[in-house]
Amino acid sequence: MYKYDHYDQAMVDARVEEFRDQVRRRIEGHLTEDQFKSLRLMNGLYLQLHAYMLRVAVPYGTLSSAQMRALADIADKYDRGYGHFTTRQNIQYNWIKLEEAPDILADLAKVEMHAIQTSGNCIRNISSDQYAGAAADEEVDPRPYAELLRQWSTFHPEFLTLPRKFKICVIASEQDRAAMRLHDIGIRILRNEAGELGARFYVGGGMGRTPMIAPVIRDFVPLDQLITYSEACLRVYNRYGRRDNKFKARIKILVHEMGADEYTRQVEEEFAHLLSQGIEPPTAELERIRTYFQDPAFEHGALDALDRSDPDFALWVDRNTMAHKQAGYINATISLKPVGGIPGDASADQMRLMADLAERYSFDELRVTHAQNIVLPHVRKADLYEVWKQLDQAGLGTANIDQIDDIIACPGLDYCSLANARSIPVAQKISQRFAAGGKADALGELKLKISGCINACGHHHAGHIGILGVDRKGKENYQLLLGGSEAEDTSLGKITGPGFDEDGIVDAIERATDVYLRERGEGERFLDTYRRIGMEPFKEAIYG
Amino acid sequence: MKILTGNDLKSGAVVWWDGRGWSLHVEDAVDAGDDADTIMAREEAARRVNVPYAIDGERSAEGRVRPAHIKDRIRALGPTVRPDLTLKPADPEAGNWVI
């Protein structure tokens, strides 16, 4: 994985000291909260419902064991012994003290981490496929390109005060495991007919109050023009994005209102201009970055079979692993969704165990998924049973990836000052309801996502089943959506009808899944059946 | 009734105006009445509180102060999904107070 050079380290260290001084001035009263707010947000420090919250960037979701241990130590030393992994592949701490925030950033800097650009109207953490560099189905490891984009976008003076926040995703396989088309810019690395690698640009996607699926604006950008084309996309947005209305400020609104064709025309015009300016980083820089993403020293001829004689292990293998590009290895996903648990939360001890397992069995690497789980990307099949046993003993052996109880949930009203309703208790009730009697197993793949407000941090628009929490005359109320997907078949869910209270929404979901179990055809997932038979049979069952 | 809340500047802890200073416990909150703006301006200027604001409060049958809106009640108690991290970790009924 990428290692800081002295420029990277110097920049991050300088930022820590700058923020230390800003915090000192705030505490001593030389800065008002109005003056200080944008400074703390630039360093990922929010003031949330109960306390300060710190969001730490995990670039394209990749962590080393040392970094995961540092995150665990921060949880113990400065927080309350746990952290929350987010849908942006980051981690958040909920109980931070302002006076200790600079020390946390200093601790992060020691392991080449920071919280820069995890808030504010700038280019945020670049996200990617959690199996990047390990998936059997990818064209190439997308992370060197994500890293190049990270370096380009970090402290980019032109893009630090965009009309609104900006999220970029890079993948390199046909299967989309990163909600790529629901980003401001989604980039898919692929080959053209000549076999050359390039980038397909999707621009103007997003969730929030106005969900949109990004259209393709260019099929193929040569990879030695990746930054130039990205800069052109950002420049047109920065020029015309709505600064007068926060709710219309995202690029999806610009592309929609301007029209994808006109937006594309302007990007192409800007691109032609920028090509003449020679802004693309030298190829040598990409090559330098690429050296950090070489394959680890896989054992060739490693045993390419698993002993499935333990049925619990076999079930976990079926649910939580994915094919690896290297024979004898496998991607293992650690579910952070125990039955009745808090989606995405991990204790400091659990983080340390995951770090230890990664160090011993996964070439020192972990990945954070947008679904709030953790991946050990390079496990020898011969070691998998031992890995699973240790995970299971620590409460991390839940076999439920992509099942109804592998729920994406935002922090909701339990933690978030923007939320209108709690997400986590609903997730817990659904998880418990469907775990009982093995119903979750019977349903197979069914992605359920919950947001506690219209900002959609819990990706409810993209759930096969989505739940949106709203405030209805001071009471929590939950709207139900069906038919969304964040995968390569991206679609947006539709609201079924009137909302429900906390218990009612769980019952409604059970009625919807009963329709699926009754109507499903051979090999159909819930989403497939919904798309085939439409909303009406579900509405009849839900509201009957 | 109007009660005042904000966060402690250094720790970020949720605090409530109790008539003399800022308490961690909403039950200590007092009706700020017409003095709300004056109190908040004075206290914020002295950095005894960060970003204070006034909310609607109500009294229970036992006479205890409780925020009128669920968001403020969760803010006063702590996360309902982690009773151990709330201000009433030993009270099994604490969550019901929120609802």
Which features would summarize this protein structure in a list?
heterodimer, A: 544 residues, alpha+beta, Sulfite Reductase Hemoprotein, domain 2, Sulfite Reductase Hemoprotein, domain 1, Alpha-Beta Plaits, 4 domains, 5-stranded antiparallel sheet, 17 helices, 20 strands, 37% helix, 17% strand, globular, B: 99 residues, 5 strands
Walk me through this protein's architecture.
- The complex is a heterodimer of chains A (about 550) and B (about 100).
- Chain A has about 550 residues and is α+β, with helices and mostly antiparallel strands.
- Chain A has 4 domains: about 5-110, Sulfite Reductase Hemoprotein, domain 2 (Alpha-Beta Complex), CATH 3.90.480; about 140-290, Sulfite Reductase Hemoprotein, domain 1; about 310-395, Alpha-Beta Plaits (2-Layer Sandwich); about 410-544, Sulfite Reductase Hemoprotein, domain 1 (2-Layer Sandwich), CATH 3.30.413.10.
- Chain A contains 17 helices and 20 strands.
- In chain A, the strands form 4 sheets. Chain A has a 5-stranded antiparallel sheet with strand order 1-2-5-4-13. Chain A has a 5-stranded antiparallel sheet with strand order 3-14-15-12-11. A 5-stranded mixed sheet of chain A has the order 6-7-8-9-10.
- In chain A, a hairpin with a 2-residue loop joins strand 18 and strand 19 (about 475-480).
- The longest helix of chain A has 22 residues, at about 5-25.
- The longest helix of chain B is centred in the middle third of the chain and has 10 residues, at about 35-45.
- The two termini of chain B are about 20 Å apart.
- By secondary structure, chain B is of the alpha+beta class.
- Chain B has a 5-stranded antiparallel sheet with strand order 3-2-1-4-5.
- Chain B has helices at about 35-45, 70-75, 95-99, and strands spanning about 1-5, 15, 20-25, 50-60, 65.
- Chain B contains 3 helices and 5 strands.
- In chain B, about 25% of the residues lie in helices and about 25% in strands.
- In chain B, a hairpin with a 6-residue loop joins strand 1 (about 1-5) and strand 2.
- The interface of A and B includes residues 29 and 95 of A.
